[in-house]
Design a protein that fits this description.
Blueprint lengths: L1 H21 L2 H23 L3 H18 L11 H23 L6 H22 L3 H25 L3 E3 L3 E5 H26 L4 H29 L14 H25 L1
Antiparallel strand pairs: 1-2
Helix pairs in contact: 2-3, 2-5, 3-5, 4-5, 4-8, 4-9, 5-9, 6-7, 6-8, 6-9, 7-8, 8-9
Length: 271
């Protein structure tokens, strides 16, 4: 399984990073849409939507994305991007933790549709907008990737104490500790050798952002695991061999990227 995961990553990552650096922003945003629609289809399965319901949900995602792709001057008097980001941030700071804490077994199709929209559309929007600053986007994504890799290996090597056995039995506190150490080292390296040149007056804000992204990435992972458990599936899909589906790969991004987009754009505008 590890060999398959590495091989898939070796194929996908160069394409993803190459597009992030070299594609025009509009084409980058459009290029991400098939992945987001695949994630939407997977959410439709997890939510228990019928075949037609999955198409309706994917159509909703597509229409939302196309509306957000309109020229910014259409929304001169209304900061629609920030509204979308804030909807996501409030969901992940308030609704999702409460959902997991109370163990909600939500099956209302309208609320599940809204939940799926909040997970997918703000993530796509943040990935699209932050591509205007590709090195910054890569640095933000690096927080999630470093945490994920470190948690995987430290958990498999030393993991004994379960983090949330009723939600995701494979996750351990040792994995969390290993990820925290790795993210700290990563932040020090990125800040002192790179990002400090872009926004030299925002070290504390950047540190706070990284500190917020780390637990939020765990929350996103746990929330998707809880949703899959309620649906009785192991993976959200099979599109990415060794990794599962699209949602399995972007679960941590859904809970972190909108907050990162809000913060990073504010930092860069003031730098």
């Amino acid at each position: 399984m590890l060999r398959t995961r590495v091989l898939t990553a070796a194929i996908v990552m160069p394409l993803f990073i190459g597009g992030m650096f070299f594609l025009p922003n509009t084409w980058w945003a459009i290029g991400l849409l098939p992945l987001m629609l695949a994630g939407g289809w997977e959410w439709g399965v997890i939510a228990g939507f019928k075949y037609a319901g999955r198409w309706y949900f994917c159509t909703l995602i597509l229409c939302s994305a196309l509306g957000l792709l309109l020229p910014v001057n259409v929304f001169q008097t209304f900061p629609v991007d920030n509204v979308v980001y804030w909807i996501s941030v409030l969901f992940w700071l308030i609704v999702a933790p409460t959902w997991l804490w109370l163990g909600w077994r939500l099956r209302n199709p309208w609320l599940l549709t809204l939940t799926g929209w909040v997970m997918i559309v703000p993530t796509w929007l943040a990935l699209s907008r932050l591509q205007e600053y590709p090195w910054v986007l890569l640095a933000v994504l690096g927080v999630i990737w470093v945490a994920d890799i470190a948690a995987y290996f430290s958990g498999h090597t030393w993991g004994n104490r379960k983090l949330a056995p009723s939600i995701s039995p494979g996750k351990t506190w040792e994995g969390v500790a290993g990820a925290a150490v790795a993210v700290t080292v990563y932040y020090v390296c990125v800040w002192f050798f790179g990002f400090s040149r872009v926004a030299p007056d925002f070290e504390l804000i950047a540190a706070a952002l990284v500190a917020a992204l780390f637990p939020l990435s765990i929350l996103g992972d746990l929330f998707e695991s809880w949703s899959k458990r309620q649906a009785g599936v192991k993976d959200s899909g099979t599109l990415l061999p060794g990794h599962g589906g699209v949602l399995d790969r972007i679960d941590a991004l859904t809970s972190t990227l909108p907050l990162a987009a809000l913060t990073v754009c504010w930092m860069l505008q003031r730098a």
